[in-house]
Amino acid sequence: MQKRLNELKIIAETKIKSAHDLNTLKELKVKFLGKKGELTSVLRGMGGLSPEERPQVGALANEIRNRLESLISSKTEELEEEKLEKQLREQTVDVTLPGLPLTVGAIHPLQAIWEQMEDIFIGMGFEVAEGPEVETDKYNFEMLNFLKEHPARDMQDSFYINPEILLRTHTSSVQPRTMLAKEGEVPVRIICPGKVYRRDSDDATHSHQFMQIEGLVVDRGVSMSELKGVLLTFIQKMFGKETEIRLRPSFFPFTEPSVEIDIYDPQKGWLEILGAGMVHPRVLEKSGYNPEHYTGFAFGTGIERIAMLKYGIDDIRHFYNNDLRFLRQFQSE
């Protein structure tokens, strides 16, 4: 058996030394040293040896195993170094080649307008409030004085999930949620930016999904003149100190009286920009505020509307087409 072990050693050493790649080396390790390898096969015959021969054969087998493992380890290191040197030779980097230009991104124009509007209102003491985009009919309509049979509901063709759940049609739904959470405490001074959804046909001025920012103030002695002052400050910070505004009578179910706000463009004349008004007494009452003690005002506008007026954009779809030619115009914004 010792003779067979020595012969196995010579054969294994020869093949290991002549291996040219790591895969072959792994196969040789399994072939000679694995659980079903040749060394193990030879040692299975130790049962037929005499008690005097077994220690000698066992010692020789361990010596051969250690020798082959050491040889395989050295050969592995050698082959890995050769592989690395080959990769370095084949993947030489030419440091004289010019580098690739880095593309610098920019904030999306709608996000930029959103953040600018938030900064303006936060500077006037407003807080940012948020609410769910999947809303209940209660908060989207009923708490805002849209009764079930109210014709004003037809103004906002909605995406209903079931008779009581829909995608919100305005961020005004955040207003009653906030007032109820405050449990009658004042002041309430919030803005509510976010996405809204209506079943509009997409064209240059309409989209089934767009963004709004709404504002709400509730306190003692809040007046229409304060509403005008807040909106004039916002518009002049957004469009310039010389921007003129006018208020026109309008109608919204959740405000009374209601107004439309226009800004004056020297080239295009008066342009509608947002709607506003004094919070309807029913809305205050439903949200836990006594309308005989508290008054408030609310306003709302589309973020796309502001961006289109500020940048002179004539088609709302440009914001959502991901056209880099359009978006690159705002890299400095």
The succession of helices and strands, N to C, reads: HHHHHEEHEEHEEHEEEHEHH
Main β sheet profile = 7 strands, mixed
Residue runs with pLDDT of under 50 for 5 or more positions: none
End-to-end gap? 85 Å
**CATH level 1 name of the largest domain:** Alpha Beta
How many strand units?
Answer: 10
Q: In what order do the strands lie side by side in the largest sheet?
A: 1-5-6-10-9-8-7
The structural class is alpha+beta
For the record, the CATH architecture of the largest domain stands as: 2-Layer Sandwich
Task: Count every helix, treating DSSP H or I runs of 4 or more residues as helices.
Answer: 11
Characterization of this structure:
The protein has helices spanning 2-17, 22-33, 38-43, 53-90, 109-123, 137-140, 174-182, 224-239, 281-286, 303-311, 324-327; strands spanning 127-128, 134-136, 160-162, 165-167, 188-197, 209-219, 245-252, 255-265, 269-279, 295-302. With 333 residues, it is α+β, with helices and mostly antiparallel strands. It has two domains: 2-90; 109-330, Bira Bifunctional Protein, Domain 2 (BirA Bifunctional Protein, domain 2, 2-Layer Sandwich), CATH 3.30.930.10. A hairpin with a 2-residue loop joins strand 7 and strand 8. The mean pLDDT is 87.
Jot down its keywords.
ATP-binding; 333 residues; cytoplasm; BirA Bifunctional Protein, domain 2; 2 domains; 7-stranded mixed sheet; 3-stranded antiparallel sheet; alpha+beta; 41% helix; 10 strands; catalytic activity, acting on a protein; 11 helices; transferase activity; elongated; Phe-tRNA_ligase_II_N; single chain
